[in-house]
Amino acid sequence: MIETNLSLAPHNERDLILEYLAPEKTADAVKLLAKSKGSVHVLAGGSDLLVRMKGGYVEPDVIIDIKRIKAMQDIKKGATGFSIGAAVSCAKMGEHKALRKAWPGVVEAANLIGSDQIQGRCTIAGNLCNASPAADSVPALIAAKAVAVIKGPKGTRRVAIEDIATAPGKTCLKKGEIVESIQLPKRAAKMADAYLRFTPRTEMDIAVVSAAVNLTLGPRGVITHARVALGAVAPTAVLVPEATKILKGGKLDDEKLEALAEICNAACRPIDDKRGTIEFRTHVAGVLATRAARLAYTRAGGKL
Amino acid sequence: MGKDTLLTDRVFKSVGTRPMRPDGIDKVTGRARYGADHNMSGQLHGSILRSPHAHASIKSIDTSKAEKLKGVKAIVTAKDFKTKGITDPGLLDIIDNCMAGKKVFYDGHAVAAVAAVDAKTAKAALKLIKVEYKLLKHVTDVDEAVKPKAPVINNKCFTKGVDPTPGKASNVAKRSEFGHGNVAEGFEAADVVIERNFKTGQSHQGYIEPHACVASIGPDGAGELWVCTQGHFVFRQQCAEILGLDEAKLKVTSSEIGGGFGGKTHLWVEPVALALSQKANRPVKLVMSREDVFRASGPTSATSIDIKMGVTKDGVITAAEAELRYTSGPYAGSWATLGAMTAFACYDLKNVKTVGLEVLVNRPKTTAYRAPSAPMAAFAVESMIDELADRIGMKAIDMRIQNAAKEGTKSSYGPVYGPIGIGPTLDAAKNHPHMSAPLGPNQGRGMACGFWFNFGGQSCTDLNISSDGTATITVGTIDVGGARASLALVVAEELGIPYEQVKAVIADTGSLGYNEMTDGSRGTFASSMSAIQSCRMAIADMRQRAATLWEIDVDEVVWENGQAWAGGESNSNHPPLSIADLAKSAEKTGGPIAGHAQIVADGAGVSFATHICDIEVDPETGQTRVVRYTVIQDAGKAVHPTYVEGQFQGGAAQGIGWALNEEYIYGEDGRLQNPGFLDYRIPVCSDLPMIDTQILEIPNPNHPYGIRGVGETSIVPPLAAIGNAVSNATQVRMTHVPMSPPRILAAIHAQAASDDSSDD
């Protein structure tokens, strides 16, 4: 394990010292998280944490870097689907052919975060635990019915992505707990997802509103299963269960799309802020949901 | 080979070519030294405590705990700045803005500063400073601030420019009026009259390098300031007066500059760094964070403009009138005056009246931003021209051509124009292939014209010939946009030597006479004029030296292609003497070869541009995409055409950002919500198309090479050009900049709702 005192100050005031720890096993990370006092932060890519530290919004006493933990470093394809380690960068997800083929929406969401340089560092587990309602990868993971594997002092628990964030910047993780990996279900033919976000700029921006749609088609383009999630329209990213009912059974036609837009508008509980108005977010949530649905539908082999 | 300018009938050899920029390698390899790249031994870290409130009285500041923290070497507050004896109100405002006196006037206003051994200690010390505030009512919106019941920001602010001066204080610092004729009669004669209100958000220059400096003052009262600035001589003058130093004893060295656009013409933190250094008796480095830059260094004004224009069926503008309200931050400036002067400057109008109101608000002090105040006025005027043309069924470009100002026109702000370029830029726009290119679905095309004054002013240059015959041109104007390349070209041209043999250097304030700032697009115009005179002085000297060596009369020595030639048949046995030959023998002919000039560069001449752009709007989201953009502008003579094109493109890019997304957003509490590049959205590369340029060369008769300034005019038309394009794409008139997606979508929905109700 690497331990470093990052303080460069010649003056030994206790409050100026920052402890940096880099365990190599999840169990060690859990122990350190459980025993560390003060402001303790997990460092994956650092694309949120370092920015917040530089801006003075957080002043960690202890930083636990998870990038050296072997169990968190890989994307694994197994019988039940994909397992994405908490320290896997979004760029690495974009380079994984099988993942891209199975979960194009999840991968495109991960590859919209920040810029190429940011994607080389940032992780979807970090994106999830940062608990921003505007996180790009989270609606896509919710629509994908992904699950976070959480290790803690009391063992392992598996939590649905939509249940992780409880409020802006807050998660359901307890003292000592850490996300080890994110599990994506197994895919078959005629399944596809899509993620779209609205940003005023083409890149280097944050979602004003976003939508993810995950569809499974049966014979003749009939939708047999659907999940829809929205981002930046409520304190946390939200699953829209009513959308599943609307989309299931039958092909994706104009009537379904119109109903989908309406139900998405209704699911919005946004705020007016510097990034957008209530009216704008509500309206565009519906627009993006219908566009993402069309995209997912064609990807799954459906014909519009 | 360059073209002749009509002015000098000269065939240029160097001017008009596109050599490699002399500062390029250093900039891309990291060798160039910017504001924060300088260090001095024993240097302390400076840090500033800023107000979290938009408007408050400072009841007390307790620095005692911070002073006791180990590693803290100096703390300054307003009481460390002596204002006694300073009479210039502008300078007093600078001091109050750098360090709040009795009140804080905006979120981010400095209240105290610390110099400590390192950043962490300085940060810890700031937390130990206790400031007690009494909150006051604030106002950040320009139209709210002019209302009679608005909180008055400065109770000694009695509107200037009103006769008699009002007895009651208000937020209107100044009223200025321009125009001629009788607008009431003009509106009577019109067939169509339109009145509208336009608004523009407050935008920041967005230079990538934050303000940074290293200050050092010794106990002998002699000091040094290394600083990122657009005008080190002006900084020296103002800092010396603020700190009570002799001007000659403060040496100011300008660093390489990572963008300025007007924002680095003003002091924001430099006097604070000097005061900390004076108190600590150690050098102090002070670097603003991006958040500080947004909160506390001058953005441009937010505006609200009421405008009325009338036109006949045949397209003659019969009258034009506007009241333009500009925010100025908490201190007076002259931004509204410039808006009122430039608004209608492109047109030949019989009846015109503009009133500019300068309005104090609880926002950071406004400063220059590339053609300051002109883009907002042009947004209102050029949007109206399009709408009027549409109403009378005329093409907007034809209406502009019909009403364009020309040589002899009495401008809307007073003077009569000499030869100007508005007509030629409009003709070029009309004939440009962009104007007739087909548009795709949801796309609209817009165009707009723009005007800017340009400036000359005081300049001083040295030319020194090295012993190998190469030349150094030493100037005192900062190179913000390629001046070193341009000045080296001009000197190469004048001396008749290759560009590669000329080095342009920017002197510190101890090495050259006073130079005004690089502002008003003056850098290349004014310094090249002075450089040419310096060269001519050196050439006269070199001809004299050749005459002495040849023992002939100086009148018989001709200077051509960088060599002295003995004229007349009887002297043909003398081979020519190059600059290198003359430099080699300098010791025998009178010592080092040099030239010098100090001038007031008059006759900068006005500048015009016409822009064309195509915008695609997503009707379901209000998302915009700039599909195509063309800039046509008069450069007088383009010294280094690539740099001229760069200036055209840069102004357009900044204008596009301002038009579509950039804006200061304030909360109910008067605090800035978006002090960072995530939510203050300047365009990224992928947001912009390749911006096409067309350089027109209508020589400036007042410059030996016909040069005009080119840096600023290019930001004047974009707000309106994009406004017109979006309006044409959506069939909804856009009146509020930035035209962000939520605003565009709301306008589309409002129009649809009103169409529905009128259908019923």
What does this protein structure show overall?
The complex is a heterodimer of chains A (304) and B (760). Chain A is an alpha+beta fold and 304 residues long. In chain A, strands 5-6-11-7-8 form a five-stranded antiparallel β-sheet. In chain A, strands 1-2-4-3 form a four-stranded mixed β-sheet, covered by helices on one side. In chain A, strands 12-13-14-15 form a four-stranded antiparallel β-sheet. Chain A has three domains: 2-65, 2-Layer Sandwich (Uridine Diphospho-n-acetylenolpyruvylglucosamine Reductase, domain 2); 70-185, Uridine Diphospho-n-acetylenolpyruvylglucosamine Reductase, domain 3; 191-299, CO dehydrogenase flavoprotein, C-terminal domain (Enolase-like, domain 1, 2-Layer Sandwich), CATH 3.30.390. In chain A, helix 5 (104-110) packs antiparallel against helix 8 and helix 10 (254-267) crosses helix 11. Chain A has helices spanning 26-35, 49-54, 90-95, 97-102, 104-110, 116-119, 124-129, 137-143, 241-247, 254-267, 278-299, and strands at 2-5, 19-22, 40-43, 62-65, 75-78, 81-85, 147-152, 155-160, 165-167, 170-171, 178-185, 191-198, 209-217, 223-231, 238-239. Chain A is built from eleven helices and 15 strands. The model of chain A is unreliable at 6-15 (pLDDT under 50). In chain A, strand 3 (40-43), helix 2 and strand 4 (62-65) form a beta-alpha-beta unit. Chain B is α+β, with helices and mostly antiparallel strands and 760 residues long. Chain B has three domains: 35-136 and 210-257 and 264-296, Aldehyde oxidase/xanthine dehydrogenase, a/b hammerhead (Aldehyde Oxidoreductase, domain 3), CATH 3.90.1170.50; 303-454 and 605-755, Aldehyde oxidase/xanthine dehydrogenase, molybdopterin binding domain (Aldehyde Oxidoreductase, domain 4, 2-Layer Sandwich), CATH 3.30.365.10; 458-590, Aldehyde Oxidoreductase, domain 4, CATH 3.30.365.10. Chain B has a seven-stranded mixed β-sheet, sandwiched between helices. In chain B, helix 10 packs parallel to helix 11 (374-392). Chain B is globular and about 95 Å long. Chain B starts with 23 loop residues before the first helix and ends with a helix. Residues 1-6 of chain B have low confidence and may be disordered. The interface between A and B is medium-sized, with 30 and 32 residues.
